Automatic annotation (TrEMBL):
The keyword Protease does not apply. Residues 10-197 form the Tyr recombinase domain. Keywords: DNA recombination. SUPFAM superfamilies: DNA breaking-rejoining enzymes. Gene3D superfamilies: Intergrase catalytic core (1.10.443.10). GO terms for biological process: DNA integration; DNA recombination. This is Site-specific integrase.
């Protein structure tokens, strides 16, 4: 794992892209819908309680951005009523989601993932447990939570890819800098090497 922080009351894990792929594959072996849920959190940055909102009606192509977006109704980090935002969707995730929706016969107004927040969190734990069975450090995988997927997504884009904070606040649903600041974790050794290489 890229990093594990067990200094506080909650263990925080950061997955790299390969580890996210392992988790998606484990979720897919249980059910395709579970893979979609993991992808929405780990590839699009949705929170566990946002995953069961979007469906085909919320997915759209942007000609201006030349990319996919999905409308998300989620947490308002300033407080108050839930807030709508457009989350960026990587093309590979969009292709898989669209194929899933078509093959599962989801109607335009139906959500892709039809499960409760607690079920979605359980799915992540079950997929992580499956990965742990063959992992070199299984105890680390057993600590992975649904929020670690969002944490990994944010850190990957903010720190490794150096996406600007304002863009991440927009697609991730953070209303101010203090809400996104915890996601500005230390860079990996690979990122440090790339940045410092002359």
């Amino acid at each position: 794992m890229v990093r594990v922080d067990d200094a506080g009351s909650v263990t925080k894990c950061w997955l790299d892209r390969e580890e996210l792929g392992q988790l998606e594959a484990a979720a897919a072996r249980a059910d395709w819908e579970r893979e979609i849920a993991v992808s929405l959190m780990g590839r699009c940055g949705l929170r566990a309680d946002e995953v069961n909102y979007p469906g085909d009606a919320e997915l759209r192509w942007s000609d201006d951005g030349e990319c996919w977006f999905v409308e998300v109704r989620g947490k308002n980090t300033s407080g108050g009523d839930p807030k709508l935002r457009d989350a960026w969707v990587p093309e590979t995730a969009q292709t898989n989601i669209t194929r899933f929706s078509r093959e599962r016969g989801r109607e335009t107004g139906e959500s892709w993932v039809q499960a409760s927040k607690s079920s979605i969190r359980r799915w992540v734990k079950e997929a992580a447990e499956e990965v742990a069975q063959d992992a070199a450090q299984p105890e680390r995988w057993r600590e992975v939570s649904s929020h670690d997927l969002r944490r990994s997504w944010a850190t990957y884009h903010l720190v490794e890819r150096q996406v600007d904070v304002r863009t991440m606040m927009s697609v991730g649903g953070w209303s101010d800098y203090s809400a996104i600041e915890p996601y500005l974790a230390e860079p990996t050794e690979g990122r440090i090497g790339d940045a410092m290489r002359v």
